[in-house]
Design goal:
99 residues; 3 helices; 84% helix; elongated
């Protein structure tokens, strides 16, 4: 009798752990963070930068102009991301001091 009860409890544990596992892994997700918007913008900047790099030869044949275009894009993207990150940090700091 004990072995039957023990095997039943083991089966319950297996189904419980399986249901917990399936409820946890419902898909790919990112933990909630105030920087998720900045992460998305970083990804967009990287993809656009790669596209610009690949298309720079089609835009102009002058290598100096290509380099200048890529430099201008990278600097403007960096400035934009730094400004957005500082804004999020400032918002988090004001929310933390208010609460």
């Amino acid at each position: 009798m004990k072995s039957i009860k023990q095997s039943a409890s083991v089966e319950e544990k297996v189904t419980d752990s399986t249901s917990a596992t399936t409820s946890i892994s419902r898909g790919f997700g990112v933990a909630a963070s105030p920087f998720n918007g900045v992460k998305l913008e970083l990804g967009i900047c990287i993809v656009l930068g790669l596209l610009l790099w690949l298309g720079a030869d089609s835009i102009t044949a002058n290598e100096d102009t290509q380099l200048l275009m890529l430099l201008a894009y990278s600097l403007s993207g960096t400035i934009w991301l730094v400004m957005r990150t500082r804004a999020v940090l400032q918002r988090c700091a004001t929310e933390q001091t208010e609460s």
